[in-house]
Amino acid sequence: MDLRGRTVVLAGGYRTESAAKLRLRLQGAGADVVDEVSRSVDVVFDGHDGGYPNERVRMAERLGVPVLPGEELQALLAVRRRRSGGSGAFPEPAALEAARDEPPALLALLEDADWSAFEPERDLPPLRALLAAVEEWHGVTAAHELATERLRERGARLRHPYPTFGGELRDYALSPCGRYLATGRGTSKGDYDGTGPLQVWEMATGRLVNGLDIPYGVGWSGHRDTVQWSADGTRIALAFCTNQVGVWDPFAARANPYGSADVTDGYDAAATFALAPDGRSAYISMGSQHEMMGCVAALDEGKVFYNDYRLHNRGPEPGMLTDPLPEEMKERLKRDEFGFRRVRWSRDGRRLLGDSEPWAAVVDLPGGRMRWLALTAGPVAWSPDDRLAAALTPGRPRRLTVFDAGTGVPVGEPAVQAEGALHWGMRGAEARLAVVVEKGGGADIYDEHGGHRYHLPIATTERIGRYFYDGLQRPWAWEPAGEFGACLTAGGQVEVWSLGGEPARVASIDAPEGTEGVLWGAGDVLALIGEETLRFVGARTGAVLGDFVFGRYFDTERSPLDDDFATLHGMFQADAFPLADSSWCAIAGPAVGPAAALVVADGDRLADLDAVLAWTVDRRFSWPIRWGRLDLVENTEAAAALLRRA
Predict the structure, then answer these.
(1) Cβ atoms within 10 A of the Cβ of 522, count?
(2) Would you say 184 and 248 are in contact if contact means Cβ atoms under 8 Å apart?
(3) What are the phi and psi torsion angles at 391 (to 5°)?
(4) Which DSSP symbol is given to 489?
(5) Per-residue pLDDT tens for 146-178?
(6) CB burial of residue 212 (10 Å; 0-12, 13-18, 19+)
(7) Are 84 and 114 within 8 A, CB to CB?
(8) Which region, left, alpha or beta, applies to residue 81 given φ > 0 means left and ψ of -120 to 50 means alpha?
(9) Helix residue ranges per DSSP H, 16-141
(10) What predicted TM-score, i.e. pTM, was given to this entire model?
(11) CA distance 263 to 286
(12) Cis ω for the linkage preceding 126 (within 30 of 0)
């Protein structure tokens, strides 16, 4: 964030220096510091120091003004002191590539580069790939070290993936571009007033790039669709705090959402919702006086509270779906109301697609006119392009029916199909469907007209995730291009199949014990997901990019720390994390200023640290720690001494 021209409010107290001194430093950086929070304020810095938020923070949350933790203010001011000017352009990938085989020439090129022109989205991935190739042939060179130092000057931060607070993994979602995985955790067992983190992972490197503590945790045990990305990947919606829905920037430091909605009358479960494509509102299922249940609530205007009794309502009033149900629909339903149990918003913003077993339905927006209704024998799967719906339909044996999502009319002839979980993918403009059969019965592949292509003889996992309450279970993943598929097996592996003219198994990859789901992201990277495990692997090679086990207990016998919460120096506090052999290490919290590269570890553990830690740039990209210098010390006393010298 560039502080120039920003309107800023300081809230709470700061341990490092007085609010008056911080005000002067902010004004020196070009910011306008004011005392009152309003919609014209750009950011509130919260220095509450772990206590309860004060009234300025509460007002910011009500209005949707970004709230950043006090450590981010320290980081911004520290980065501003280190930055230098420049007016050129950062070297093009072709120029860097030309120096790949000559490390001295590459070093000279990076030394002469204008790093003020460095744009991570454009420049970091090719530079990272180039330096990885250089390392393979020449080891870590001075060019690696210089690039790391420049990125640190730009504000790169050390980060590890193990949350200090939070319980089991509850839900996850891949970004539309396939480059990022978002995972959400609930609160720790019995900690009903705590937080559970949203964590964002870069698929290409298998490393955590951002984390946000969400009040009362994300989602609900067993519930799906509690983590949803906007169509452009710049916003993420979460069911949180039991039955509220909020929208965050997944790559920001802001602690509060753009906005949130509490409209479900306090049901003791996660809200059923569908995020609008632009990420600014959501359909939320709720009771109402109308026949089509639910409303469309704003998620970019601070806090919205609403109930149909109009008691204590706050914020913009949600839009109700006021169109009545057609009489023919009510006759088939045997009731005069309908609400979605699972739902998504169409990409064109004009329809809701979903089901409330045993009924599939499509509803037009904004009024809520029901377009069609179909009886099914299980959940409905909607193709990624919104053109088709697939479901097993009643009868013995079950039949797979593909519907036109616009009309509800079946496409092609229904096919006899064993019970299973349905997964759509895209191969160019053509949709493809995989059915993972229960009881180890393999997988069947269909074309978009419901025509059976072939059967894959896979000993499929028992936990196929057919129903809404099956939580993390997602045993099948399509390659983004639709030419391959990956499936979890009962034997604890992921089989990768080529699905061209003739199917063929091309890889078998070991999965961690307890793996429940598989996602196929950009760059041919698979994420293998369990309640307490997460592994990133190459889909064709099986090469492990990142491998994490959560929920480990602190082992004081093997800890290099003096105690669980050892104060390092002033504002720095130990942030502990486990290494491969269950010994524990720590980075300073916050890892800024003199403590930016500080790591407490028992001995030379660089290889183990490199498997866990990463430098993160703009909370979007990771950078290997082995390419730069760390301040490694063996205990907190040595850490405090290092900070005093700095």
Answers:
(1) 14
(2) no
(3) -160, 155
(4) B
(5) 999 999 988 899 999 998 777 889 999 999 999
(6) buried
(7) no
(8) alpha
(9) 19-28, 55-63, 70-82, 93-98, 103-112, 120-138
(10) 0.91
(11) 7
(12) no
